[in-house]
Specification:
Largest sheet: 10 strands, mixed
Structural class: alpha/beta
CATH superfamily of the largest domain: Enolase-like C-terminal domain
Shape: globular
Distance between the termini: 45 Å
CATH architecture of the largest domain: Alpha-Beta Barrel
CATH class of the largest domain: Alpha Beta
Number of helices: 13
Bound molecules: 2-keto-3-deoxygluconate, magnesium ion
Number of strands: 18
């Protein structure tokens, strides 16, 4: 089998997505997600201008060799644009191999290790009572794990809180909005939120929270300690993780489990965090961390250190990435949990897929390959629209991590 074409489709059915389609001379095609929120066109250019010409004539079954060719062969290594582009190729090749061998991708990854993929949903509200109501709605929908985010008194916007209720989409059309931040006000709100959630729901529900890279290590240590008795499944991204050893300081102060890595793009971003057991969950995912091939290497490194996976699964990762993540999740031994924000009906129509949610779990399809496709005619009705993530600033206007 030979690769005869590699094309990129950019569409915006509610939000922007970048999809790679790889075609072979035997009529089998594969898809890979290449979406990098707010920087979509850079990955499209990387794929079209620099990667696609290298693929033509290659055997799509040589997944490891092609991965190394694109990674080592570029000389310039890592980075979100490069690794998202490599991820898209890698994902498409696994899809092709599954279809060609007439088996779901999870069978190529060692087979199923569990019955379903435990997921968490996103509850949010402008106030604590609204957030409690949103968590209750997720419970009614059958979720066993819920991430809770809440508005912060005194701040006009808060991460994860949008249109109140089930959906939150941070990217906005046009130039980036600027959001204010106050660590002091936020740290007053979060303990009250989880006091209320635990007294309302007890301990039968997994609760999670995302601090979205905004705290200092000592603030994070205090928050983790204050939340310990609430037994969170995780506190996510308490501080930015460029300084991996910085997590030692947080660990010295709290046993609240920590999750890190949705912005990571390679195993080198998390080596110390994993091998020094500074985190409990690693959130790298297929599209931003070099595809299924590289994500498996991260998971395998993590396994002996009791670090589990918790793949990023926000709506800016397309259904192609979600399908790939589910085949990975169901097969990898040290799976922890998968983030799940359902896509809009428009997105689901453009990307028909056979994964489904039932009773708190997602289930990958059992058909050949990844079980996801793209309706290109429908996709063409939704052209790209420039959109950015917000920028964060402190109360005095100093730029801060958003
Ligand atoms: O594109 C950025 C979003 O995916 C990110 O802000 C979402 O933090 C996020 C999460 O945990 O889903
Ligand atoms: Mg996050």
């Amino acid at each position: 089998m030979k690769i005869v074409a590699a094309r990129v489709i950019v569409c915006s059915p509610g939000r922007n997505f970048v999809t790679l389609r790889v075609d072979t001379d035997e009529g089998v095609h594969g898809l890979g997600d290449a979406t990098l929120n707010g920087r979509e066109l850079a990955v499209r250019s990387y794929l079209c201008d620099h990667v696609a010409p290298l693929l033509i004539g290659r055997d799509p079954f040589d997944i490891e060799d092609l991965w190394q060719l694109l990674y080592k062969g570029a000389y310039w290594r890592r980075g979100p644009v490069t690794m998202s582009a490599i991820a898209a190729v890698d994902t498409a090749l696994w899809d092709i191999k599954g279809k060609a061998l007439q088996t779901p991708v999870y069978n190529l990854l060692g087979g199923r290790s569990r019955n379903g993929v435990l997921v968490y949903g996103h509850a949010n509200g402008a106030s604590i009572p609204e957030t409690v109501e949103a968590v209750a709605r997720y419970r009614e929908l059958g979720y066993l794990a819920v991430r809770a985010q809440c508005g912060v008194p005194g701040l006009p916007t808060a991460y994860g809180v949008g249109r109140g209720g089930l959906a939150y989409e941070p990217a906005e059309e046009g130039l980036p909005p600027e959001h204010r931040w106050s660590g002091e006000q936020y740290l007053r709100m979060v303990p009250e939120l989880f006091d209320e959630l635990r007294s309302t729901f007890g301990f039968d529900l997994h609760l999670l929270h995302d601090a979205h890279h905004r705290l200092t290590p000592i603030e994070a240590g205090w928050l983790g300690k204050r939340l310990e008795d609430h037994r969170l499944l995780w506190l996510e991204d308490p501080v930015p993780a460029e300084l991996q050893e910085g997590y030692r300081l947080i660990r010295q102060h709290t046993t609240t489990p920590l999750a890190v890595g949705e912005v990571f793009n390679s195993v080198y971003d998390c080596t110390r965090l994993i091998t020094e057991q500074l985190v409990d969950y690693i959130r790298a995912t297929v599209v931003h961390a070099g595809g299924i091939t590289h994500l498996r290497k991260i998971a395998h490194l993590a396994e002996p250190y009791h670090v589990r996976t918790g793949c990023h699964g926000a709506t800016d990762l397309s259904p192609v990435c979600m399908a790939a993540a589910l085949h990975f999740d169901i097969s990898v031994h040290n799976f922890g949990i998968q983030e799940y924000m359902p896509h809009t009906p428009e997105t689901d129509a453009v990307f028909p897929h056979d994964y489904h949610f039932a009773d708190g779990y997602l289930h990958p399809g059992d058909g050949p390959g990844l079980g996801v496709d793209i309706d290109e005619t429908l996709a063409a009705e939704y052209p790209y629209r420039r959109a950015y993530l917000p920028v964060g600033r402190k109360q005095d206007a100093t730029v801060h991590s958003w």
